[in-house]
Amino acid sequence: MKLPDSPKMPKFMQLGKWIYHPLQLMEASAKAHGDFFTLWLTNKQPIVFISHPQAIQEIFTTHLESLDSKGSAQILQPLLGNNSLLLISGETHQRQRRLLTPPFHGDRMKSYGDIITNITKEVISSWQIGKAFSVRDSMQEIALRVILQAVFGLYEGERYTQLQTRLCSILELTSSSLRASLSFIPALRLDLGRWSPWGNFLRQRGEIDKLLYAEIQERRDHPDPSRNDILSLMMSARDENGEPMSDLELRDELMTLLVAGHETTASALTWALNWIHRLPSVREKLLAELDSFHNADFTEITRLPYLTAVCQETLRIYPIGMITIPRIVKSPIEIMGHQFEPGTMLVGCIYLIHRRPDLYPQPEQFVPERFLEKQYSPYEYLPFGGSNRRCLGMAFALFEMKLVLATVLSHVDLKLVENYPVKPIRRGVTLAPSGGKWLITTGQRQKVEKSAIEV
After folding, report:
1. Residue 11: which H helix or E strand, with range?
2. What is the CATH number of the domain that holds 62?
3. Among 99, 168, 323, 432, who pairs with 427 as Cys (CB 3.0-4.6 Å)?
4. Under DSSP, is residue 439 helix (H, G, I), strand (E, B) or coil?
5. How far apart are CA 357 and CA 309, in angstroms?
């Protein structure tokens, strides 16, 4: 079997490029080798990057007997644990997914609307007029407080404060390309005490585990059927055999929700605010749509088409997850004429698919209108992955994203700091906007009534 072509550089250089310059590596490889190319990012097996929608469809619809995801995201294991939904497969994965699905759908999700809007109002009330602020820090605070309140039902107290502090600390340990090397190069994981990066990580993780297990035990000792936070729903859920999730399973899924549920949303919100204020026409259209909203139920604002399109385009142009969860070939398989043998890893390259000119004309331009003019298939637009591995929190993330943006834009006027670049950078395993204080509050926003304009 001949693998698709690989960049002409040593394997260690490919890994270095993937850690420090992932977008350039993917773009150069696609330019040289097309929709299929091979990268050597581990010592164990080749990883084939695929960026053709037809091939993605074939992968997503292939039976699990031929492709498996078990162990393919091991890079996340030290943080999330072996029982994370991202790391398990087969019947175990299906069971966990069924147990975790109910809190993220329908009316249950809408009940979190007040939490999201109230937290957003509290955070933006601290922004000082005329003073630049860190957009990333503010969005991370909103997203973390939302996830703590929605997942745990924690609003205040020692455990709430400790979890907030510890989670921020442990995520900062992989917040740059250099720090992310710990995740990609196991040989760097040396516990040389709390002042070493890996030693610090292990101690932070241990403190978070104590907090999570203490919360789980408290819930078991004092059950409260009136609670509707996600942890309570997870603890009351039963599989087809009447079995609940174990403490270890709960811990790993809680870490997955806490990490995946706020880091990614914070990045997406930061990107959205950048694009909205960098492009006056986008901001004007969005504000006009928000001003036209008169429903007493504020959560209905999430149905507005242009707001939705802005969020969709934000997640297209710089998807937070650059690639899908890898699939490992278990039995020989053919994808678009390419033969793959067992042991090969296949990943859908979300970033490159979202940059295909045949799907997205002028793909480097931020154009929300493209989502109003065309319906994209789940193999052409896949910011949350796909098939049985599509992000469980997708609906919640979009719901939160729209409510936060609508609340911010309805309450304050903002402007960009001139000539302050915002660039895509690696943040752990995700793609995120660079930091810095590049937005300024210019005052409270006065809603412009249409009738006043016409007069």
Report:
1. helix 11-20
2. 1.10.630.10
3. 432
4. strand
5. 19
CB atoms within 10 A of CB 143: 27
The pair of structure tokens assigned to 422 is 């915002």
CA angle 371, 374, 378 (to 5 degrees): 85
Tell me whether residue 6 is in a domain. no
Euclidean distance between the first and the last CA atom of the chain, given in angstroms as a whole number: 73
Alpha helix ranges (H) inside 104-229:
106-110, 113-124, 135-147, 158-172, 177-184, 197-221
Positive or negative: CA dihedral 99, 227, 146, 297 = positive
For residue 439, what are the β-bridge partners?
133, 416
The rounded mean pLDDT for the chain is 85
442: closest CA among 411, 420, 421? 411
Do β-strands 47-50 and 424-427 pair in parallel, antiparallel, or remain unpaired?
Answer: unpaired
CA angle, 395 then 399 then 405, to 5°: 145
Edge-first strand listing for the sheet containing 36-39 = 36-39, 47-50, 345-348, 327-329, 67-68
Q: Concatenated DSSP letters for 369-408? A: THHHH-PPPTTT--TT--GGGS-TTHHHHHHHHHHHHHHH
Contact (CB, 8 A) for 174 and 430: no
pLDDT at 32: 93
Band of residue 235 on the pLDDT scale cut at 50, 70, 90: confident
Does residue 92 form part of some domain?
A: yes
| Pure H helices in 224-366 | 230-236, 247-278, 280-291, 305-317, 350-353
Distance between CA atoms of 204 and 167, rounded to whole angstroms? Answer: 8
Query: For 41-57, what is each residue's pLDDT tens digit?
Result: 877 788 999 999 999 99
CA 96 to chain centre: 20
**For the CA atoms of 144, 149, 155, 160, what is the dihedral angle to 10 degrees?**
-50
Tell me which residue range forms the domain holding 38.
11-454
Predicted structure pTM score: 0.90
Is the residue at 97 inside a domain? yes
- Domain total for the chain? 1
Which has the minimum average pLDDT: 91-100, 136-145, 308-317, 357-366? 91-100
From the list 174, 233, 260, 171, the residue with the least C-alpha distance to 208 is 171
Residue 114 located in a structural domain? yes
How far apart are alpha carbons 14 and 6 in whole angstroms? 9
Show the tokens assigned to 452: 């006043």
